[in-house]
Design brief:
Length: 222
């Protein structure tokens, strides 16, 4: 099976060498767990290999993403890849993104150089649909069907963990889930767990990780 590396060595090791190419992977976790950093690293890893990537933010402005990668040791490299058109950052305002999301997906699918896409976050889209009294499956099913292409690997950001984590619908529709959690036992402890990953074996225990100026760094699985 062809693998789509995340750029995070030990995270790739937890799923047999990387995400299965062509899959849709949910990155779940509460605020402060590094979901954005992981997503940016995922796109940069692809761009370095010539795989064009799109980051579609449904809530935060692009300026927030710029601040996120600028604070990293690889920020200048990321910006260079962006200027070369290897990475595209797009923001869809909350009030407009239902129709515009389809237009962006059209753009990605028509771009033969596009091999990675991040949608951040899926929760914003779901809340938008609920306000308009539309079923979650009615929105996500056709979106995911369109994104399922052998040479396109998708990361969708999901808020929360544990009881406040992704709904059963979201977890059912994605092919894999990377769960980032933040524990407090007198001091902060970050753990990553892979509760689901289709088409490949996954590490069955949680592993510690930290966020540094290099981004997400996962401890070596034992």
């Amino acid at each position: 099976m062809k693998r789509c590396n995340t750029g995070i060595k030990n995270l790739d090791a937890m799923v047999g060498g990387g995400f299965p190419c062509g899959s849709i992977i949910g990155i779940a976790g509460p605020p402060g767990t590094g979901k954005t950093n992981l997503s940016l690293q995922f796109l940069m890893e692809g761009a370095k290999k010539g795989e064009k990537g799109y980051y579609i933010t449904l809530q935060e402005p692009v300026s927030n993403l710029e601040k996120a990668y600028a604070s990293m040791s690889w920020g200048k490299e990321f910006e260079t890849l962006r200027k070369k058109g290897k990475i595209v950052l797009k923001h869809l305002p909350y009030a407009d993104f239902e129709g515009n999301l389809d237009a962006i997906v059209d753009e990605v699918l028509a771009d033969t150089k596009a091999h990675r896409i991040v949608i951040d976050s899926l929760d914003g889209l779901i809340e938008f649909m609920k306000e308009r009294k539309r079923g979650v499956r009615a929105v996500l099913d056709p979106l995911f069907v369109r994104l399922r292409r052998d040479d396109l690997t998708t990361v969708v950001v999901l808020e929360g963990s544990g009881e406040n984590g992704p709904s059963s619908v979201e977890k059912f529709l994605v092919d894999g889930v990377v769960s980032l959690d933040l524990l407090s036992w007198g001091e902060l402890e970050r753990r990553v767990f892979i509760p689901k990953m289709r088409w490949t074996a996954q590490y069955e225990s949680s592993v510690g990780y930290k966020i540094t100026n290099k981004g997400i760094e996962v401890d070596k699985p034992e």
